[in-house]
Amino acid sequence: MTDLAGLAEVAISAASKLEADDAIALAIDGKARIVRFANNSLTVANQTEETELMVYLAKDRRTALAVTSNPVESDVRAFVADLFSSLSGLPETNQAPLPAKGGKFRPASGSYDDRITKGVDDLPGLAKKAIDSSLSAGGRRSAGIISASTTSYSLLASNGTSGSDVRSEITLNIRSFAEGDASGQGLSCSASMSEFDPAEAGRRAGGDAQKMVGASLPEAGDYEVLLSPTIAANLVGCVADASSAFSVEAGQSYLTDKLGKKVAAESLSLTDHGRMKGALGGRLFDDEGMPTSSTPVIERGKLNGYLHNLSTAKRWKTDTTGNAGILSPHPWNIEIGAGDAEFDEMVKGMKKGILLTNNWYTRFTNYRTGDFSTVPRDGAFLVEGGRVTKPLKGMRLSDGLERMFSSVRLVSKRREWIEWWEVETPTLCPWMLIDGVKITRAFE
Length: 444
Hints:
Oligomer: single chain
Largest sheet: 13 strands, mixed
Strand content: 35-45%
């Protein structure tokens, strides 16, 4: 096992001898056990371990940042020396210096679930639970991936900041098929074994696949659309990314010049958490060694603030929110506040709408205005008069983030943690019923 604290200490010692003005070393060790399955059978089981060292250096208003995967002490010293040498050829920046005095961070007891680490050998059995549940619900064949991982962090900075942290998570993504291309998806994402439910994920995937048999193309138009937490989390992540002060400065955010203004329905609140109970991501400290926190981005529909690191905070004359990325602030864990609606109530309230469970290929036509399109897939159903009437396929959803989230009519009480390759930032998300969403056929 790599001595992460020792690795960071080697880098900071080398930077000190070179007389860097500021130096940060963040060592990360990730261990993962992964099981893949296809056609209802396990296909691949492997275990990985990867160590990375991120080093940031500043000297005479010049800064550089680089990452190495080589933990050998002599090579780390050479890596730091090469990075320092590169500073002389770089332009001056307005990067903020580190605070004169740093803090100390140590993980609290119970900050991760060691049952995930100890239970990695049971992943094939957990995958089988998902597959069997999908078969019972009507799926004929399933494919997917289940992963259990533990990530450890150690940070040391030239101002005396030091810290360590650790997190664990287990995630399952299962996609099931019935006849032809009729498909459904199920997810289970958790920071603890007690909340992990592969059988429910399989049931959803198989059940939606069976319901999708005989799906037809939709009529183009504006619909009431009921978004599952899986789709809503994908789009909410785009909102959180747009709240980075760096995105605003770069002209890539639809939230520019909207502090204190209404940008969503009153029923919508979005908070970023560095650490929260049950969260899959986050840390006690950010990449600059500043404490992470809970940052209300949108409160009851109004834009409350942006995400900052030390440099953007200096330019905006405010405080860092503990969201560094040294170059660009980013969210850690996104939470959408719970509503007061039940799922059945949301469906019954739809006159003519579409229920969507999954999507992919979200692309922006204009980041500055927030205009995007995304392609629904897997379970998608027409709702008429409060009843699901038939399955649909071959759709594209096109809208703008502000218009869409300003038209949220109902938000569910029940929320789910979502993380998969279309949702990189872990998100605790409800179902959302949204008015006036434009639906077209995917290939028109």
